[in-house]
TrEMBL record:
Residues 140-219 form the Cobalamin biosynthesis central region domain. GO terms for biological process: cobalamin biosynthetic process. Its EC number is 3.7.1.12. Keywords: Hydrolase. GO terms for molecular function: cobalt-precorrin-5A acetaldehyde-lyase activity. It is an enzyme of class 3 (hydrolase). This is Cobalt-precorrin 5A hydrolase. SUPFAM superfamilies: CbiG N-terminal domain-like, CobE/GbiG C-terminal domain-like. PANTHER family: COBALT-PRECORRIN-5A HYDROLASE. It comes from Buttiauxella warmboldiae. Pfam families: CbiG_C (PF01890), CbiG_mid (PF11761), CbiG_N (PF11760). Residues 54-134 form the Cobalamin synthesis G N-terminal domain.
């Protein structure tokens, strides 16, 4: 998904009227505005070589692209760039008189629908949104996943199936596990049937469960597990430990605490491990950030945990995995610290998206 891109929005304007409208919007939104050399205004960036080339560069660099232009022009210029709904940025189109704002691409996961509504509200324009769930005033599984920063097995097919069931007026239940239940009211769940307990289901055609668990009780209906990314792992290891060893031990820790592997949010270690091949490869393999903490940052919390004289002599701090997990999870550690084969792993659960 495109959540790792910068927060600024790329805006493209092709006419004097578009430039004037962009000027109005700059006061309210974090915009990076592009236009042609002949229309250039202070604070605007000229197209780099051509309009199409600049759009191609922005498509992979920004979470959202806004065009003040004809829809046909925009469709033609972005067509060669399209990948899939999990990676494409939001694309919104509006006319220079600010009468209509159109959600064109990545309405749910990319946030184009929300951006369209925001722009329309700022301009007093008509928001044009055509996704079936929105048209029918229903929630969407991919939107819920994005808001929760959650994933699931076979994400694309699951979203297609559940959203189709919702718009077909089938009964799709929604169950929130443990700590997530008090937060349920914060999310758009229109169309889902609330489920209080997995032991006494109402009549349903399918069930979506928001949980970190690696396993749930079997049900007689299709079950879709939506897994928020909340689990963090502080990791320390001997130099040149293999990726296989670290990965297997991390999976062992996750399984021991009954966490779904999809719940992993980040791994962390000391800055001296910034070039540790196994940790870099692990972060890339699991598609999570690799967070590094200085010796001073870890030392602030090492008194909470057992320390190792050897680790202190080697790294300058007596413990790595536990204070790293403490910082990543804001003090919410779970389970015990695994120590074997020159590797230490401590898990925590962050309550923040």
């Amino acid at each position: 998904m495109n959540t790792a891109k910068p927060e600024a929005i790329a805006l493209f304007c092709l006419t004097p009227g578009g430039v004037a409208l962009a000027q109005r919007l700059r006061a309210a939104l974090p915009l990076v505005c592009f236009t042609s050399e002949k229309l250039l205004q202070p604070g605007f960036i000229p197209f780099g070589g051509s309009f199409a080339r600049t759009v191609a560069q922005a498509f992979s660099q920004y979470p959202a692209l806004v065009f003040i232009a004809a829809t046909g022009i925009v469709v033609r210029v972005i067509a060669p760039l399209l990948n899939d709904k999990l990676h494409d940025p939001a694309v919104v189109v509006m006319d220079e008189r600010a009468e209509h704002v159109i959600s064109l691409l990545s309405g749910h996961l990319g946030g184009a629908n929300d951006l369209t509504r925001q722009l329309a509200a700022l301009l007093g324009a008509d928001p044009v949104i055509t996704t079936a769930t929105d048209v029918n005033q229903l929630a969407a599984l991919d939107t819920l996943a994005a808001k929760l920063d959650a994933s699931m097995q076979d994400f694309r097919q699951a979203v297609k199936t559940v959203n189709q069931m919702l718009v077909s007026q089938q009964r799709v239940g929604l169950w929130w596990d443990g700590d997530f239940a008090p937060q349920a009211h914060e999310y758009d769940t229109r169309g889902f049937i609330p489920v209080a307990s997995l032991d006494a289901l109402p009549e349903l055609d399918a069930l979506v469960c928001v949980t970190l668990r690696d396993a749930l009780p079997a049900q007689a209906i299709p079950l879709f597990k939506l897994v928020p990314k909340r689990v963090v792992a502080g990791i320390g290891c001997r130099r040149n430990t293999s990726l296989q060893i670290v990965a297997e031990l991390l999976d062992q820790q996750l399984a021991e605490n009954h966490f779904d592997p999809l719940a992993l949010r980040a791994i962390g270690s000391v800055t001296l491990k910034q070039d540790e091949a196994a940790l870099l490869a692990l972060a890339k393999e699991r598609q999570v950030p690799f967070r590094l903490f200085s010796v001073d940052q870890l030392s602030e919390h090492e008194q909470r945990f057992p320390v190792s004289a050897f680790v202190r002599e080697t790294l300058g701090v007596g413990s790595v995995s536990q204070p790293a997990a403490w910082l990543l999870s804001h003090g919410r550690l779970v389970g015990h610290t695994l120590k074997t084969q020159g590797v230490t792993i401590t898990l925590g659960v962050s309550d923040r998206c």
